[in-house]
Write a structure and sequence with these properties.
Length: 145
């Protein structure tokens, strides 16, 4: 739960944002940039390189720290993704659709459903029927849903 940010910090991009058919990657890069600039709210720091960041790096077959180093060195989202695809696991195009569906539905009737219910309760969202996945939760917590 990180909904409130100070005047010196900002929320990362939406987890729904995509680049070249891959969701979440732009948010991952944005979090790295915000952290490097000292503009990422401390509520996000513990999960840098974990959770959805880690899953995305695992899907791409790359190390989070290596990606973070590239992004901190000035790589754009497109450049970072090209590097990841060139140095990670080769994936056929149809796997991106599977990956996107997996990411969009995490927390909905799966092994993380209990954790999502806990996070919703902690945030006062327990009565929000529109928050059914972790992506929904992030959007609500950051004021976009």
């Amino acid at each position: 739960m990180v909904s409130a940010v100070s005047s010196s910090t900002e929320h990362p991009r939406s987890p729904q944002d995509e680049i070249d058919g891959l969701i979440y990657f732009p948010r991952l890069c944005h979090k790295i940039r915000l952290h490097a600039a000292g503009k990422l709210d401390p509520g996000y720091h513990a999960n840098l390189g974990a959770g959805m960041d880690l899953w995305t790096c695992q899907y791409l077959g790359i190390d989070y720290q290596e990606l973070a180093s590239r992004v901190r060195s000035g790589a754009s989202d497109s450049e970072a993704l090209a590097w990841a695809r060139g140095n990670g696991t080769a994936r056929p195009a149809h796997e991106s659709a599977w990956w996107n569906a997996y990411m969009r539905t995490r927390g909905f009737r799966d092994d993380l459903a209990g954790r999502l219910a806990q996070r919703k309760a902690e945030s006062g969202f327990q009565d929000r029927a529109d928050v059914q996945t972790f992506m929904d939760y992030i959007e609500a917590d950051e004021g976009r849903l």
